[in-house]
Sequence to fold (787 residues):
Amino acid sequence: MRPRGRRFVLIAIVGAVLVAATALTLLGLRDSVVYFYPPSDLAQKARSGERVRIGGLVAAGSVRRDEDGALLFSVSDGAANLDVRYEGQPPDLFREGQGVVAEGVWRPGARFEADTVLARHDETYMPREVAEALKARGDWKGAP
Amino acid sequence: MIAELGAFLALIALCASLAQAALGIGAQNSAPMAAASRACAHVAAGAMIGAFIALVAVFVRSDFSVGVVAANSHSDKPLLYRIAGAWGNHEGSMLLWCLVSALFAAAMARSHTAMSPGLASRAVAVQGMVTAGALIYTLVLSNPFARLDPAPFQGASLNPLLQDPALALHPPMLYLGYVGLSAPFSLAIAALLEGKADAAWARALRPWVLLAWTCLTFGIALGSYWAYYELGWGGWWFWDPVENASFMPWLAATALIHSAIVTERRGSLAAWTILLAILGFAFALLGTFLVRSGVLTSVHAFAVDPRRGVAVLALIALALGGGLTLYALRAPRLARPSGFAAVSREGLLVLNNLGLMVAAGVVLIGTLYPLIVEAMTDRLISVGPPFFNLAFAPLMAALLIAMPAAPLLAWRRGDMAGALKALWFAALVAVGAAAVTIAIRADALWAAFGLGVGAWLLAGALAYMWSRWARGGPRSLRRLAALPIAVWALTAAHAGAGVFAIGAIAETHFREERSAALPIGGAIDFAGRSITLRAVEDVRGPNYRAIRGVFQVSGAGGAAMTHAERRSYDAGGAPTTEVAILSDGLNDLYIALGEPAQAQGAEAWTVRFYFNPLVRLIFAGAGLIGLGGILGLAALLRRRAAP
Fold:
């Protein structure tokens, strides 16, 4: 192949890879990104059937297990509560009064079925989304 | 006193690095000045070693009048973790960063005869600037030797999750990798300053890249292994921003390894190799920024200090901006006509570089997108595994499918038909692996595809060795042993990628998970085994109390006892999980003890069970890849010793 032909092949391949990667990236950012909502925003902002992250504080006295052994708890952002069910073992730092983030599919009126409850490495650490949500409501007591 | 000595030594190291940079730049072709610059590099490295020993000493002596010791240590911690505590925090880890950079500068100074005098003096100078920049940041914004007044009586202890042998090693390894990428950066900047990047330059560059990459590989693998057995939910990779932060420099360094080979062997792609060296170091700095500034929501929690974030960003801007400006000015001069066909080893290595850098770009976008969205719209989002599965995986799959052919092609103009002929057996193995997967699980099409690719990589790497073995004579054991180390290195690294892929695909697609409330004496059937909770007892460790669940596991291979714990450390903090792992060398049965619960009115314990098929291949594959790096390094150093 002559140098010009070679250069054309190279540019064509580079172009094809870049176009494919860009397309997949945009598609991924449109469809597989998960939004975070505090419980009080869910009803207005989230679509039914949307995969969301919710977060707030685990409401005091709300943690128990149902007859199937699944974990039931309530997440509060000070204004609203959301009942959550999670089949499995919560992370080590899961406790009443502590910040929590859970991910699952949101359906209005139903108990939130979480498939992931996020763990943090450090008990003094508040999940950032929770801190932001609490700050927005003026309920933030930690460092600014 | 020791702390002040440490701070003093760090200051000496800073002065020596600055002198090293000034003398090296000024040296041009003056041999005495270059020698003085190298001597300064040795002084800086010696002073940094002393400073770091001082830091370890205040940790070992539990001197709580030093701020970082009080915040991160405790007098009843075991010795190993008091030592590891020295780098298990922001300030100490930054001092480690400076130490590694100074050590690389000294190593570069020692090996200056492998480079032209002009290149060596400039490279040592740039490395001195890197050390000085990191030291200024450390001493001004995160001084590990700062005293507390009044000194507390006891320290706040190291986060118990971090009290672990793998984590004692993980940060130094990762830092050797991150900071190691400063050496190729220095050599790239030196080449731009000198206006010359030829085969000899690439020859001097390659060992540094390989060293940094090997350390990065082991560092990431150790972190992944730690997450797997310590966090208690059986995962080994979460596409967490902090993991991505170490993965992006790894991808760039992988690309750099391959493009440097082309530059050395063929003299082409020099400008591209320089660009990769600059970008690789920028990714390493970005990794430090992402981890240390606390800008990201992450399973890894770090202190938030915006001044530090801004300062690291300024250092990145300086390194990347300065490097790229110099590149724009000088690189056109380095361009050289490169005569190679699309189907040639160069051609496939260019594809490899394209794929790896685009993949790094995708990871970068996925990692930074939440920050961008938050800054622009105030909405909080997370980008998780679904994004990376969609955008990263296809790109990687394409790259991996092309991989086995590359080493079988000749330089300049390759014979694709011949390469594919050498790979017919690998193709058979790949199709076989996919078919077996489908036969076991008819619905697992993606897993079958992935396992096929893994088998293709593994068999393809062996096919390369098989064809090299036949070159110039019959296949005899003597000739196998006489194969160049570089052939073994390539085979190990590429086969490791295959082994890793097989493990990762099998674990992701076929893992089993179950959670149950078990009374003492209760049993469940899980993954073909019968698991009984025999007892729950209280035990006492060196600095913690634990509740220990003893399990009996009986399956086809007989019965075994194992135990899982929940630990509460005396220094306080939340309980941690120590999982039970029963491994047969390939597959793991993984048991995590949960909280007390009620089952049919009786006292019981919640227990999580995981069966992770072929999970050991993930770590074995990563180890093989790293072994490839070690062998490659040995090959390069041996060649340097006997020119």
In short: The beta strands of chain B are 381-383, 512-519, 523-526, 529-540, 544-555, 558-569, 576-578, 580-583, 588-599, 602-612. The longest helix of chain B spans residues 345-377.
